[in-house]
Amino acid sequence: MPADPSPTPVLRLAGITKRFGSLLANDDISLDLDRGEVLALLGENGAGKSTLVSILFGHYVADAGTIEVDGRPLAPGQPRAALAAGIGMVHQHFTLADNLSVLDNVMLGTESLWRPLSRREAARRRLLDLGARFGLAVDPQARVGRLSVGERQRVEILKALYRGARVLILDEPTAVLTPQESEALFATLRQMVSAGLAIIFISHKLDEVLRVSHRIAVLRAGRLVAVLPAAGADKPLLAEAMVGRSVEMPRRDPVPPRAGTPACELRDATVRAAGRQGRPLLDGVTMQVQPGEIVAVAGVSGNGQAVLAELLFGQRALDAGSLHVAGRALPPRPRAFVDAGVARVPEDRHAVGVVGDLSLWENVVLERYRRPAYARFNLMRRGAAMADAQALVERFDVRGTEASGVHTLARHLSGGNMQKLILGRVLMAPGAPDRVATAPPATPAAAPPLIVANQPTWGLDIGAVAYVHQQLLDAAAAGSGVVLISEDLEEVFALADRIAVMHQGRLSHARPARSWTLAGIGLAMAGGGHGSAAETVALAT
Amino acid sequence: MTELLDLLAAAPFWISVLRVATPLILGTLGVLLCERAGVLNLGIEGIMVAGAFAGWLAVYAGASLWGGVAVAALTGALIGLLHGMLTVSLALSQHVAGLGITLLATSLASYAYRVSFPKVDTPPTIEPFAPMAWLPLPVLNAQTPLTLLALLAVPLVGWLLYRTPLGLALRTVGESPAAAEGQGLSVTGLRIGAVMAGSALMGVAGCFLTLAAFNAFFFNMVNGRGWVCVALVVFASWRPGQALLGALLFAFFDALQLRLQQAGSGVLGIELPYQFYLMLPYAMAIVALVVMARRASTPQALMKPYRKGER
Amino acid sequence: MRLERRSTPSRAAILLAPVAAVAGTLLVASLLVAWAGAPVGRAYALLLDGGFGSRFAITETLTRATPLILTGLAAAVAFRARLFNIGAEGQLYLGALAAVAAGGLHGGSGFGAPAWLLFPAMMAAAALAGALLLLGPALMKSRYGVDEVVTTLLLNFIVLLFVGAMLDGPMKDPTAMGWPQSVALQEALHLGKLIERSRVHTGLVGALAAALLLWALLKFTTHGFEIRAVGANARAAAFAGMPVGWVTVKVALLSGALAGLAGAVEVAGRAGYVTLDMSPGYGYSGIVIAMLAALHPLGVVAAAVFVAGILVGADSMSRAVGVPTYIADVIVATALIAMLGAGLFTQYRVRWARAR
């Protein structure tokens, strides 16, 4: 329950509107926040939650509307003003300088720039006090780049508390935490609330929102569609408010693995850190994926998933152990993996998946431009490439190409459409494996032997997520082996036949999905046991 | 071999080293400030020329020597402002903007010189800085006050970067602009400020040539020293103390090659064309760059433009 | 002031940008001309006339443009792949030296070998020299992450000193009465005149052909595709399986070769021998030209002619009204900066922050 309701809300937003070009990100949003309250901001990706809090913090200027803190108007567009008014923000992507120490990051901007000497010792003591008070232990001298994700989040929170925040905004804070770390965070939140802070908690996870918040504000397509007390709300109600319609999320009925050569087999795979110091990045990883099966690798980011992905993408060499794709050992070069038919979906679609300044059709043939279908005597067959690209756009429903068709620059595509482009180009044309898929849904001839997808639905709205999931399920049904690396446990439980958990470079045994409990998987993500008898908590309905 | 050792032991050699090092120290510190804040300033060659000319012209027109230095610093800062606006506010390519500015500053300075002194056979001169004979220290008492300034600038810049809130802000802006913005600082303001301050130092480095080392303005005075400073910053791992070391090392080789030329073939035992000796310092700079590039911890946000609000 | 990205590039801005850039440049130049005490209008007229106003002017401009096209192409292809080749000046000189060395073997007689054999050998030697010179910095960049801007720049100084040493020593022309210049090429190896009674030589045709070939390479071939992809986003290109290191090497060889050829073409088309001042900064001008042309090979031709015209025109204007020739460099540099700034406004809108 909110503590002692005061007459003036600590924060009042009125009529906030923000446009980005033709996109209406926030549409006349009005909201109050009371002292000692936890308000959850719920909505799917693209609903406008991050935009709203960015406006609150001063990263953006609203096109219309006002913000009042304790009854006083807040100057827009200046983080400095927001900070001075007592608003602190823990961003989804941490705003920390990796090469500097924890103390440096916390002290930054808290002293006048004209001071001739920084008062570091006093600051250090104050930081340690705060840490003790709120149970957020950090080492002030540690270099931020060396900290774990959970520790970095603690630094972000301490930054805000150090500046005397009275309103704390947390943007998707549990996206990067294990279930247990999330519990610890909630405990911290409760402590902060009893100390008088008000909290805005952004999430798209219904369970957490129901547990942690006093009130829930639901955003959909930029509009505030509901504000209701958490007590008395339930998931179906919230889901419907979030989405506005019932979206059928694809679900996997687990199938037993098919016999035959594994699509992908890792045996004792080890990758050591540069300079061979300390713990290996991948430590004796063993995993097997049969054709037609979906094996998910769950875990908190930073435990070796990136290295595993690089290995499976052909970007890394093994220091020990072996990797076989469809029975063959491949040289650690991306080209070799592409030629072997491995369908690769990278984590960062903007920076790694597409070349933003090239056109759509050029991105479609980015991996296969040397095949006879698209080049002859080193001259590109532009006509064929453009035609196949057009077919891909139609078949995979890539939107955003109205103006320039296949000549649209890749960077003008939205995240979801970019992902469709990336997915489309790695599925093959039936009967012509060197051409991109141009025909109806995946058939056995068009299914690549192995699909490796790393966080494939990160940052996508629910429609795009459903689309991507369906593509993966179809491909598996057609015979592809799928390795799904994902930090999103909902996604993992929705799609996987078997689940393995990654922790500090080690991979657990990949057990059938049904045999994992939420508590068990959380434990494995944090490094303990492999799921013992704990209450079975079904994750999704 | 003994001839070589004699050469190195003589005081005039070290006097020469310090003199050659002065513009390098100032220039390298200038580039260091810019790059620590995340901006590559390839305008240095042009800024040094402009500083050399402006400072000299001010003194020729009647200003005091230190007034000339101030004018050179101001000139540098103004050109730095232009560079900052192009690369920080407009986020243009730092390479291209820098090269464009070098070309602009150099040609403008040359143009201005020609317009001011249309028909001269011998270049007009001024009375330069006198050596600080009043200092009790050897080698240093043969240097001009600008050298002392350069040497003092090293610990000053170090203090600024590591002991003051401003320095922390500057370093953060070069490592993670988002972190700076998240703490309410202005990335644009800090970066442009750093570029202006660094460019002011570069301007002073230039005027050392016309107000201390020589007493007139020549075309091709700077002769690539600006580029050497850019290399030296990498060698220095973006640290002021190491920058001093690098500048001294380069000056050592530069002074050495001059002596070797003068001493003739006797010293090394073989006859080498004089151009070879002149090449040595530049070659050393390249080697230093390669050696250090593998290990240096580059400021993370160097050369990445930051657009506020673009996420 | 804030910049906001436009969702689609503004049509009006695309057309206005070059106009605004030119206007800005003219303004700056006018101020400078006025400062020199010369009548502004007349100075401009003389500039245009001197660059394009007569048969003589045009042929002079074209002659100057020939090496500029080649160095411009060298910069354009390198910059496309984000390989910032600032060493075209050195590559040009080394190419010139190599050409004379190959063509002027054995004291100028070339061992009696026929011209049709020596000429291609000359050109090949020049291209090879330039290519190898850039290969070093390119490899240092891809292997060790060394910034190629500084290495190529410093190499320029080293190369010039080397050429000086050669001209003073082994390659000195004994009949040149003390001037440091190289042994001359025989008549048969000179490039023929393209236009009679002018200095325009067939090198111009070669340069134009090179521009056309480079354009075709970038647009239609797999090599061009790789170059463009690597230049736009090397990480994504590497992920897709492109051999980024190898592409960088190819680009370096190509860019260096073009700059080396510029040197050979200058030697064979103009003086017939190498001197230390044969290039008034063609290598550096090439970079500016490439930027003005937005790295487009065909645009490079236009930009080269423009810059050449300004340089030639400024020479004649300076003689007539006493404006220092440095104005040419000022105009080119200002044009570059103005073009960059103007081009930006096609993609971004300016928003002035309002204090409330």
What does this structure look like?
With 541 residues, chain A is of the alpha/beta class. In chain A, 30% of the residues lie in helices and 23% in strands. In chain A, the strands form 6 sheets. In chain A, strands 13, 16, 21, 22, 23, 24 and 25 form a 7-stranded mixed sheet that branches. In chain A, strands 6-7-8-3-9-10 form a 6-stranded mixed sheet, with helices on both faces. Chain A has a 4-stranded antiparallel sheet with strand order 2-1-4-5, with helices on one face. Chain A starts with 10 loop residues before the first strand and ends in a 16-residue tail after the last helix. Chain B has 311 residues and is mostly helical. Chain B has one domain: ABC transporter involved in vitamin B12 uptake, BtuC (Orthogonal Bundle). Helices cover 70% and strands 0% of the residues of chain B. Chain B has helices at residues 2-9, 11-36, 44-60, 65-89, 94-116, 145-163, 165-175, 177-182, 187-213, 225-235, 240-263, 274-293. In chain B, helix 7 packs across helix 9 and helix 11 (240-263) packs antiparallel against helix 12 (274-293). Chain B is globular. Chain B starts with a helix and ends in an 18-residue tail after the last helix. The mean pLDDT of chain B is 88. Chain C has 356 residues and is mostly helical. Chain C has a domain at 70-290. Chain C has a two-stranded antiparallel ribbon with strand order 1-2. The longest helix of chain C has 30 residues, at 115-144. The radius of gyration of chain C is 22 Å and the shape is globular. Classes of the chains: A alpha/beta (541), B mainly alpha (311), C mainly alpha (356). At the B-C interface, helix 5, helix 10 and helix 12 of B face strand 1, helix 6, helix 11 and helix 13 of C.
